[in-house]
């Protein structure tokens, strides 16, 4: 036995001498990876799944009881903070994992009527300006540079309340070494996640929060949050795989708010701008017909936009003020041209899906909950 051990000792010594630096290198790489965070660009099924798990705990008991299937709890992230309810029934949660990745998770609409008021307060306002939220709180925001960029006022009010609570928490975690943050929301929370992301990028640009923080956003089941010009700038900011709009193709919520497109919503260079001079060049009969047709197309959209502002801006705004007495309604942007925003991941509902989640005239949220999204996520292969 001693002879055998003596013969293999040099071999074991050699292997150990090779393995030691290799293990040290791997350990160093692992430690460095953990310190720099684990966020990578691109859609990550596992990442999105864990965010849904976290998101489910933000809702009250009534919402939980309505779920057909129980949503698992995450075992990869620890809950650090759950905010009180604020603003128009808004709430958020803060999480962190061992790899120093923080999570900002924004709650969606609950059964509370004031949360629905936030959705229906749907007039547009410029994507940069100020909101007078309270006597001692003016929310200054710059979500896009283009003066034609505009966003949903109700969700901007929600963002104003949440931002005041979120930003100090980001600063606290940053001081502990957290430089990577996932931002996620489902439904109304998805809309808020767009605006919150744009706001945080703006604060980075201004130097109000550290520039070496990395944000990655998943807007889940999100409605349309702004117009074309907001969408252009947002998509430019997150280009390269740092934000995704995740949609169940059977879900109606990503199709709202209603969209009204007018001629003034187009870029300055367009074929409709000088349409009157083109019409004048036509023969009499053609000129009369074209002018009548043009008026018939233009007038209804302009009237629809005025009604949009009247009911979903001024009227809804007065109800908001009753709930938030110190809030001052801003001037609205003369547009309601809502568009879908962000690189989109389509979870395509197929025949097998509809057998599990059947269309219903009574259960209008059958395709909107967390369960159908998780179901389709497992079928997603990209």
Q: What does this entry look like structurally?
A:
- The longest helix has 40 residues, at 284-323.
- By secondary structure, the chain is of the alpha/beta class.
- The model is unreliable at 1-5, 11-36 and 62-66 (pLDDT under 50).
- It has helices at residues 2-36, 45-56, 61-65, 113-120, 153-174, 188-206, 228-237, 275-280, 284-323, 351-356, 370-379; strands at 78-82, 92-96, 101-106, 124-126, 128-134, 137-142, 150-152, 180-186, 214-220, 243-248, 344-347.
- The strands form three sheets. It has a seven-stranded mixed beta sheet, with helices on both faces. A two-stranded antiparallel ribbon has the order 4-7. Strands 5-6 form a two-stranded antiparallel sheet.
- Helix 2 runs antiparallel to helix 11 (370-379), helix 4 runs antiparallel to helix 9 and helix 5 packs across helix 6.
- The protein has one domain: Alpha/Beta hydrolase fold, catalytic domain (Rossmann fold, 3-Layer(aba) Sandwich), CATH 3.40.50.
- The chain is globular and about 75 Å long.
Strand adjacency order, main sheet: 1-2-3-8-9-10-11
Q: What is the assigned CATH homologous superfamily?
A: Alpha/Beta hydrolase fold, catalytic domain
State the end-to-end CA separation: 56 Å
Tell me the name of the CATH class: Alpha Beta
Low-confidence stretches: 1-5, 11-36, 62-66
Largest sheet: 7 strands, mixed
Helix content: 40-55%
Give the structural class: alpha/beta
**Number of strand segments:** 11
At the fold tier of CATH, the topology name is Rossmann fold
- Shape descriptor reads globular
Order of helices and strands: HHHEEEHEEEEHEHEHEHHEHH
Number of helical runs? 11
Mean pLDDT over the full residue set? 87
- What number of domains? 1
Approximate strand percentage: 15-25%
What is the name of the CATH architecture?
3-Layer(aba) Sandwich
Radius of gyration: 26 Å
């Amino acid at each position: 036995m001693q002879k055998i051990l003596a013969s293999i000792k040099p071999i074991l010594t050699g292997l150990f001498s090779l393995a030691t630096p290799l293990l040290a290198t791997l350990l160093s790489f692992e430690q460095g990876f953990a310190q720099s965070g684990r966020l990578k660009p691109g859609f990550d099924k596992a990442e999105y799944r864990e965010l849904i798990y976290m998101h489910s705990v933000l809702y009250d008991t009534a919402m939980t009881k309505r779920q057909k299937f129980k949503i698992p709890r995450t075992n990869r992230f620890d809950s650090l903070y759950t905010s009180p309810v604020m603003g128009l029934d808004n709430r958020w949660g803060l999480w962190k994992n061992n790899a120093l990745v923080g999570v900002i998770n924004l709650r969606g609409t609950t059964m509370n009527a004031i949360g629905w008021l936030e959705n229906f307060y749907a007039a547009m306002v410029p994507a940069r300006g100020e909101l007078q939220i309270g006597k001692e709180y003016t929310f200054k925001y710059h979500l896009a540079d283009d003066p034609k960029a505009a966003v949903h006022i109700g969700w901007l009010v929600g963002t104003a309340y949440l931002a005041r609570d979120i930003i100090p928490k980001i600063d606290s975690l940053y001081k502990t070494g957290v430089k990577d943050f996932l931002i996620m929301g489902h439904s109304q929370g998805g809309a808020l996640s767009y605006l919150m992301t744009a706001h945080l990028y703006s604060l980075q640009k201004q130097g109000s929060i550290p520039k070496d923080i990395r944000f990655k956003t998943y807007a889940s089941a999100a409605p349309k949050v702004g117009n074309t010009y907001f969408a252009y700038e947002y998509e430019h900011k997150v280009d390269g795989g740092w934000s995704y709009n995740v949609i169940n193709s059977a879900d109606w919520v990503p199709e709202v708010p209603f969209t009204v497109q007018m001629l003034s919503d187009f870029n300055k260079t367009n074929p409709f701008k000088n349409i009157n001079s083109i019409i004048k060049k036509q023969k009499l009969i053609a000129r009369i017909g074209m002018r009548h047709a043009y008026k018939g197309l233009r007038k209804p959209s302009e009237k629809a936009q005025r009604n949009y502002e009247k009911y979903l801006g001024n009227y809804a705004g007065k109800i908001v003020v009753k709930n938030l007495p110190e809030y001052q309604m801003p001037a609205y942007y003369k547009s309601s041209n809502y568009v879908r925003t962000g690189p989109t991941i389509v979870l395509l509902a197929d025949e097998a899906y509809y057998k599990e989640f059947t269309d219903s005239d009574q259960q209008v949220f059958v395709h909107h909950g967390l369960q159908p999204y998780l179901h389709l996520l497992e079928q997603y292969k990209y």
